[in-house]
Amino acid sequence: MKLLPLPKNLFLRLVVVLIGLAILAFIVMQAVPYGRDHANPPVTGEPAWDSPQTHALAKKACFDCHSNETTLAVVLQHRANVMAYL
CA–CA separation, 58 vs 64, rounded Å? Predict the structure, then answer.
């Protein structure tokens, strides 16, 4: 019994669907927190701030993501905002 070859457009459609599913799986994997206990290490020191205003600005704008004082809810909210743009 001889197998009939797939039409070219059906093969391309299958490839596109498989690539789309792989991309979707990768995006979903980014939302799953795996391999971490989500505990922050202790703060061991701070840089020499040039003024209290600089420290306040950095704490308000940057510390939620770029410090050992990160709260998981903020990180997950940021991920949700990034995913909304995709």
Answer: 10
Q: What dihedral do alpha carbons 49, 44, 71, 40 form, nearest 10°?
A: 160
pTM over the 0.85 mark: no
DSSP 8-state symbol, 53: H
> Rounded to the nearest 5 degrees, what angle is found at the Cα of 33, between the Cα atoms of 75 and 68?
45
Residue 27 neighbours by CB under 8 Å, 6+ apart: 83, 86
CA 71 to chain centre: 15
CA distance 65 to 79: 11
User: Both ends of the chain: CA-CA distance in Å?
Assistant: 47
- 7-24 confidence digits (pLDDT tens): 678 888 888 899 999 999
